[in-house]
């Protein structure tokens, strides 16, 4: 059962990756490149190979990340820092408004 879910997850991920590549190619590359060249899919093939190589390397790098540490430590620290900065910015803005209204 778990293996089936994992296999289905990889299949869905593959389909989404293909769709992402196809839409990106169509909307961001073919829109201008199609008018410049008549290579009949050669660029598509080359970029597709590069895309899958990038995906493979990204997957390999992500497999070495300690997800628990990232979620429980790094994200919590980043959120704490963000909200402390936000609180400080709000306090400074309130002080500026108060000083501005005194004149």
UniProtKB/TrEMBL annotation:
Residue span, PXA domain: 1-103
GO cellular component, one term: endosome
Molecular functions per Gene Ontology: phosphatidylinositol binding
PROSITE patterns, A to Z: PXA
Upper lineage: Eukaryota, Metazoa, Chordata, Craniata, Vertebrata
Domain of life: Eukaryota
Annotated protein name in UniProt: PXA domain-containing protein
InterPro entries xrefs: Phox_assoc
């Amino acid at each position: 059962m778990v293996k089936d879910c994992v296999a289905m997850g990889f299949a869905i991920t593959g389909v989404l990756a293909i769709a992402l590549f196809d839409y990106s190619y169509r909307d961001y590359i073919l829109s201008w490149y199609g008018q410049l060249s008549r290579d009949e899919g050669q660029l598509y093939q080359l970029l597709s190979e590069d895309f899958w190589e990038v995906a493979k390397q990204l997957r390999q790098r992500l497999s070495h990340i300690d997800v628990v540490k990232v979620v429980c430590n790094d994200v919590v620290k980043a959120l704490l820092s963000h909200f402390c900065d936000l609180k400080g910015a709000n306090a400074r803005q309130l002080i500026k408004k108060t000083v501005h209204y005194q004149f």
